[in-house]
Design brief:
The protein is of the alpha/beta class. The chain has helices at 73-77, 81-97, 112-121, 148-153, 160-172, 200-212, 224-233, 246-252, 264-270, 286-304, 327-334, 340-354, and strands spanning 2-9, 21-27, 30-35, 46-49, 54-57, 59-64, 100-105, 129-131, 136-138, 154-156, 178-181, 217-221, 237-240, 258-260, 372-375, 390-395, 398-401.
Length: 402
């Protein structure tokens, strides 16, 4: 048992405790008490002084690619198997040190991501809790075989039999959920993100086969038609959700399906101009601009309409680097104008609910897992302090950064 004392708490992220400052008692993997300052049990084995810094729940990134580097497909595909593994371990460590204690990998090197997850789960590695989908499942599409990396990480399925077999293969290889590409992509040469690449019947079949294996489906969707057909087919999370319309919003308001925007893609585009890395220049075209601008507007509309919005970054895609995940929060504020406290809820409470882990994560509460971060600053007033203000990270009661 140990005590984290002199903690400043964020009211919106704290349950069953009403004062601004507190001492937090941690035993094993869980928070066992939240008391007034200097009132914690004096028999604690150790005491850590937060010195008035903000203590909040560890954050979620529901859309990351832990085996991607941020340097683009050609670079990624040129690495040896050993380098990919070492990079992936470094990536998840960087995310943990940045305050992200739970990740959802949204597609990567088959088998490898699941192996890293398993090594963290059994204590062989220290890292965030990770859920993986295995390879990206996609209809046959221009760009899927554009380079070695795409060829290795995309699983093409078309017929009912190939969909059934494909889902079972990904589950066999460790998938916690199924990721399906329903629209064109900004990142694949020759692909058009403004049109669907899958039919309703195909998406419905993927959802049915995933459900049969106890899994849900997350779908890559940019355009309105793709989003709508995926929602109607029963897809659980819409990734990117760039162009929402009224019909999409009405289904989402039922509260059984969710969106996970990735506004960092917009930030990557803004960073791809003169003097910036050439590997992000592909995003500087009219179609990409429309998609990315629409993504911000759709996220703002969803938030203003009271929807539960998840936090995703697309980290690992070009110009979006592991450990900088908190830039997503800054972009949501600076580009979308969202309030700091609302953004924090998206990164914690809402993402925990979408992940099905709200009983254990998402808020500071006695009885919940001690996934906590200590921040030098007031992120509920200015989320940008999360970029370089992380002083301590606690993962399941273990101090992993101090």
């Amino acid at each position: 048992m140990y005590v984290l004392k002199n903690c400043r708490l964020v009211p919106e992220l704290t349950e069953d405790y009403n004062s601004e400052f507190a001492d937090i008692v941690i035993e094993g993997q869980r928070i066992v008490d939240i008391t007034g300052p200097e009132k914690a049990c004096c028999s604690a084995e150790r005491v850590f002084d937060a010195e008035g810094c903000t203590v909040m729940p560890g954050m979620f990134d529901l859309h990351t690619h832990i085996s991607y580097t941020g340097f683009g497909d050609l670079h990624d595909g040129g690495r040896s198997e050993y380098k990919i593994l070492l990079d992936t371990i470094k990536h998840v460590t960087d995310c943990l040190n940045a305050g992200f204690t739970t990740l959802r990998d949204a597609g990567g090197k088959p088998g490898l991501c699941a192996s890293v997850r398993d090594a963290i789960d059994d204590g062989s590695l220290v890292g965030p809790d990770i859920k993986v989908c295995g390879r990206l499942m996609s209809p046959t599409e221009l760009g899927n075989k554009a380079n070695k990396w795409a060829d290795e990480t995309i699983h093409e399925i078309d017929s009912s039999d190939s969909i059934r077999k494909g889902v079972r293969e990904e589950v066999r290889d460790g998938a916690d959920y199924i990721k399906y590409v329903a629209s064109g992509a900004v990142t694949l040469k020759g692909s058009n993100p403004k049109i669907p690449i899958a039919t309703y019947e195909e998406v419905k079949k993927v959802v049915e086969e995933a459900a049969f294996k106890g899994r849900y489906v997350a779908a890559h969707c940019h355009d309105t038609d793709s989003i709508l057909l995926c929602l109607k087919a029963g897809v659980y999370t819409i990734e990117h959700a760039s162009l929402l319309n009224d019909a999409c919003m009405e289904i989402l308001k039922e509260g059984r399906q969710f969106i996970v925007p990735t506004i960092s893609c917009t930030g990557a585009k803004l960073a791809s101009g003169e003097g910036k890395p050439a590997y992000a220049a592909y995003m500087a075209n009219d179609t990409a601009k429309q998609i990315l601008e629409g993504a911000v507007k759709s996220m703002v509309r969803a938030s203003e309409d009271g929807l539960i919005v998840g936090l995703g970054t697309d980290t690992g895609m070009p110009n979006i680097f592991h450990g900088n995940n908190a830039m997503e929060l800054v972009y949501r504020k600076n580009l979308g104008g969202l309030q700091d406290a609302e953004i924090l809820k998206q990164a914690t409470i809402y993402s925990a609910l979408i992940s099905g882990e709200e009983e254990d994560k998402g808020t500071v509460k006695s009885g919940k897992l001690a996934d906590l971060i200590v921040v030098d600053g007031k992120p509920d007033k200015d989320v940008s302090c999360l970029l370089d203000g992380i002083k301590m990270v606690i993962k399941r009661g273990r101090v992993v950064r101090a």
